[in-house]
Design brief:
With about 325 residues, the chain is of the alpha+beta class. It contains ten helices and twelve strands. The radius of gyration is 20 Å and the shape is globular.
């Protein structure tokens, strides 16, 4: 079943204002002028759907991307099954109708309810292990154990790299509504906290620039100093920077599986990246305010929610 209401309402509201076709033409002209930021935006029609059984393979691919080099530690099929069991909780974004592949996923899993399942135990044990290696994540050591009184919802959010951030706020808004409906039906989704699993990266300058004396392209905007090690931190998920404002804490961790230090030596990228895991914890009540801020920061409209085709970012690092 398609979740079309939010997208249609936003599109209608946008159409009631300025002429959307004229606005999009302006985008095309500005992106074709050249310069350091070389990209194009392509208009596509997004549809939101409940998780469905035909999404099983697509979910595994998105989870593999989200969990990085440590994805092999988890039974991705079992996580996908957990997501699919929650038929009316969570959303996918597709561009080819109900039978198409999911390009984005957002859902929440109850860590305590599924604690006895092997796959959930592996997730929790992994989070506790990584929290023990990072001072910024140490509060998780008392929050996640089985004897804790806290009810933590693990939010899994991932999308293909070219999908615009503007599709995310409607997904969060729908998730909050679905949780409210589930709680009214006495289902176990009364959370005290939400833990958002994400990822960031550090840039590695390419030695190609040193050997050829060619100028290096600027990194995408959104860098921020990582308080853990002083390195510049960049977001795979730009919405994380907004979520930080409402978080109790957030922090990064190294993957157990070593990440090869990339060195871009081709015409398409001027830097390599070192990915790291990233976790954001917030109280349940704070997520509502965060979603309002996301809608303001990344408003969905026909001119912004397209697929961004950037020559330096055409595939996941």
């Amino acid at each position: 079943m398609a979740k079309r209401k939010h997208a249609e309402d936003d599109l209608e509201n946008s159409a009631a204002g300025d002429d959307s076709e004229e606005e999009f033409s302006g985008l095309e002209e500005s992106s074709s002028e050249g310069g350091e930021d070389d990209y194009d935006e392509i208009r596509v029609e997004f549809e939101w759907f409940d998780p469905q059984k035909q999404d099983f393979e697509g979910f595994q691919m998105l989870l593999r991307q989200l969990l990085g080099t440590d994805a092999s530690f988890f039974h991705l099929g079992a996580i996908a099954d957990l997501i699919l069991e929650q038929k009316l909780l969570g959303s996918t974004v597709k561009t080819d109708g109900n039978e198409g592949d999911p390009h984005a996923l957002l859902t929440v899993l109850n860590l305590k309810q599924h604690r006895n399942r092997p796959v959930m135990k592996s997730l929790v044990d992994y989070l506790l292990d990584r929290a023990s290696t990072s001072s910024s994540l140490s509060p998780l050591l008392s929050l996640l154990p089985a004897n804790s009184n806290n009810e933590v919802g693990l939010i899994l959010s991932e999308r293909w790299v070219n999908i615009a951030t503007e599709v995310v706020p409607p997904m969060y808004e729908m998730l909050l509504e679905e949780i409210e409906w589930a709680v009214n039906d006495k289902e176990p989704y009364t959370f005290t906290h939400y833990l958002i699993w994400s990822k960031i990266y550090h840039a590695i300058p390419s030695t190609l620039d040193e050997t050829t004396n060619r100028p290096m392209k600027k990194m995408k905007p959104g860098s921020k100093k990582d308080v853990n090690d002083g390195q510049s931190m960049y977001y795979f998920h730009p919405e994380d920077e907004v979520l930080h404002r409402y978080a109790i804490f957030h922090g990064t961790f190294d993957y157990k599986t070593p990440v090869p230090e990339g060195d871009s030596r081709n015409a398409f990228q001027d830097f390599g990246v070192t990915p790291r895991g990233h976790l954001i914890l917030m109280e349940a009540a704070a997520l509502k305010s965060a979603v309002v801020a996301l809608k303001t920061e990344f408003p969905f409209s026909p001119t912004t929610a397209g697929m961004t085709m950037d020559e330096s970012w055409s595939s996941n690092p």
